Amino acid sequence: MLRYQWGRLNKQQVGAYCEYFVKMELTMHGFQVYTTEVDDRGIDFVCRHGAGPFLQVQVKSARALQNVFMFKSKFELADNLYLALGLLLSDGDLPQLYFIPSTAWRTPDTLFCGNDYGEGLKSKPEWRLNLSLRNMKALETYRFESTIDRLVLNGWTT
Question: What are the contacts of 72-77 at 24+ separation with CB within 8 A?
């Protein structure tokens, strides 16, 4: 049987897989990972390296190039808040991981967007990651390994 058949998993299973995968990858890079008991604030877990500062992490997953949304009320842009994105685009392949600082949304472009809906409308204000073939090159900057390396070099860790 082919391993990593993403289509066989439901949405909740895909989300759980990506969350655990990100936690294990951070652990392999020497981070301490602390899981929240209740996920009611949009933070899936916090982590840190050595005695360095804590990073807050929200994990999202996608099985296709599509928009990924985070409510602004639960994803407030901050230097220590990151979006961990797991893309499961091909059966048989491990997730493609990205680790994106929330501050990337401070400079909107075709990849990093926001929607501010008016009072009483269908949706709450949200941040959007516009995943498309056109935007994949811009997303490459935030590959998991590259972002972790930049964090280490910039003194987020000890």
Answer: 72/114, 72/116, 72/124, 72/125, 72/126, 72/127, 73/42, 73/124, 73/125, 74/41, 74/42, 74/43, 75/42, 75/102, 75/127, 76/102, 77/102, 77/103, 77/105, 77/106
CATH number at residue 73: 3.40.1350.10
Q: What's the token pair of residue 54?
A: 């804590």
Please give the model's pTM, rounded to 2 decimal places. Answer: 0.91
Q: Give the strand pairing for 96-101 and 112-115.
A: unpaired
Average pLDDT of the segment spanning 75-79: 95
Structure tokens at 36: 């929240």
Q: Nearest 5°: phi and psi at 61? A: -135, 155
Q: How many domains does the chain have?
A: 1
pLDDT in tens, 102-137: 999 999 999 999 988 766 667 789 999 999 999 999
Per the structure, the complete domain to which residue 142 belongs is given by: 6-153
**For the chain, how far is it from start to end, CA to CA, in angstroms?**
43
Give a yes or no: residue 36 inside a domain: yes
Flag whether pLDDT at 72 surpasses 50: yes
Q: Give per-residue pLDDT as tens, 26-41.
A: 999 999 999 987 666 7
Tell whether 1 is covered by a domain: no
